[in-house]
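Chain A, query sequence.
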Amino acid sequence: MFDREKLKDFGKKVPMGRPGQSLEVGPAYVFLACRDSSYMTGQVLHINVGEIIGGLATSIKLQKDLSTTGLI
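Chain A, predicted structure.
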């Protein structure tokens, strides 16, 4: 269970500044589960509002954060 303080700030650190709603992310999951996606192979649908975990955006941000601390 989340405490109220953590829940209050949930989603504020992503580029859109808010968590995704089920109506925004659900259709992508339904698409992948239905026959309409049967011709799709080897693709990645990033349903993450631009925050790619472990991707280039995260690497660049991490480098900037570390450079301000003098660690790199």
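The mean pLDDT is 78. The CA atoms of residues 32 and 38 lie 8 Å apart.
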